[in-house]
Amino acid sequence: MTVTVPSYPASTAAGIAPDRFKQAFRRFPAGVVVVTADAGRGPVGFTATSLTSLSLDPPLVSFGIGTSTSSWPHVERSAGAVVNFLGAEQQALATTFATSGIDRFAAPTQWRRLPEGEPVLDGVAGWLRLETERIVPAGDHRIVIARVVDSWLDEGRSPLLFHDGAYHSLRNRRRPTTNTDTPS
Question: Where do the H-state alpha helices sit in 9-157?
Answer without folding.
Answer: 18-26, 72-77, 91-98
